[in-house]
């Protein structure tokens, strides 16, 4: 009997995975916001939280299972919820800024986060991008949330009771709350933040209930204070309602502002007189309108769910940090001066992660929002003196590189215009030639500009990784310089510097290696050692970080045959590692070790493009094979659905691009390198009004290899497609097969851009 049951389960699983979806509608309903939430400090399956928000909204809301200040604010394995938190957190490693929470209770007059926590079950939890609902078992209360960009509507459904409470927690590190019973209103602010230095920072909030308070109280930490207004280290409040009938709903409207209480009231008008259901339907419509830019057909149920769940993750960061004042002007809080300034601003992203695929994705599918982001970067430079490399929400001293150069250059190369690009270019030159505060500019720039690399032995950590990224960033600057008709000697300078990667190539190991100030290589050298000369990776991961000159790297290795052998070795080597630099096995190492893909570490960014590099050496079918392996094994629409940190849309953007059949290996060029499409049909609705259709009618799990491609009916022979080809609209038709075509894309004429062989 058990054997038969097992067969039925296996058959059902096969049918679920294999059943083809011929038409997708109501796209937001395919999303699982819990994808990636089954994570911990030791092992990341995404390190995400369910974000109840609008695309690029200023605020998000999430159920809070972790204690206040814990970056793991929601984990799937948790059993209790202690609040519903407004959050701006990009990742648990960066933590949050301006958080506050609300929590309904029955029978407990407490604001203590441990005492107020309630048991819950995922069986009684509904999680959608535009709506969240959960039953709080300890209180017989259901909480519902639906968002706008800067506000949210709440519904609390209580049992019959005289002791219904809602706690408002403004968190520690400086907070304030005022209760206004005559208006059923609470105002307050949270000044908590985790990274950088913020001037005059406050997240002002206003909460308006539709039900009068019976009683109310304020608390300084755990001490109740008899007053209606209180400031201190950790301020909370408690309001009490008398509920006469079971299933009575108490509604609340909540808005916030980084500028003032008055602006928070203006932001509350995003809800206005709308009831909860109206706000919910508007939020759902916004999501569907945004998602409908990409319509996929002809995939399994799990593939469709995974695609739209990853697309959802690409549409949050960086978050809007600008607001619209009473006169309709776009304004923002400046963390540099603490003042209200005109114009756009965004926050909550690290360019080390997101320059690779997230920003190129925005440039392709949502260029208008990235135009706003570019204007925001311009304001960062004008107000703070530097472009950010990690903004959360100001400059944050973490990670390496000067990858703002890529973010700025790629936007302009891809045709986004209408902002002061010349001042942004000045900002790139400033960052490229100076070392700034909080990881801005370039650490070790004096060495880099003099020697052509950052030395290993001058007390600058991760020196080889810095050199490789600076070289690529110089390439990005040179491409933008050409478009802006800068002096030829300036263009030549940065193009020459972009070849600095060659200084670190060790011909003995055919890998990148730290180099000392005197020109000798670091000794001893273990290519499997994580950190040290590299950033969250080893030499086998970082050697491929020559995005702009893969042909040059290939020739250093001895030619295409040896290059392919080195690529193959990444997958065939055992996942051995040396973690001594960190003193323990960091989660990124563990995620590589358990993936059963050798040294390939898809859970972190440095190597994510490497699979596509077979296209530069005449063996594109290996790219096609490994893309499908990663997509099928490393992504699932489940709480453990990622194979490492999702990282502000980057790891999701890899999946989205790869599902389309191409990937931006080298941002700041106009090329996308081909892979293998996942679906039978994808329709891109471009912002210019044109439609680009990707067709692979005989696509399947077995038919993963590209046999032939036609562009608008004509044979397409290269291993890349241009940005302009896509923007012009039309069809891109793949004929797939279960066996590789070992003749297509094998000659240099088909290879993508490399600086050593191509002049654009």
UniProtKB/TrEMBL annotation:
Key words, A-Z: Calcium, Hydrolase, Signal
Signal peptide, first to last residue: 1-18
Stretches assigned to coiled coil: none
GO MF term list: hydrolase activity
Annotated ranges, domain Glycosyl hydrolase family: 263-737
Keyword Lyase: no
Subunit structure: Monomer.
UniProt protein name: Glycoside hydrolase family 92 protein
Organism in which the protein naturally occurs: Flavobacterium jejuense
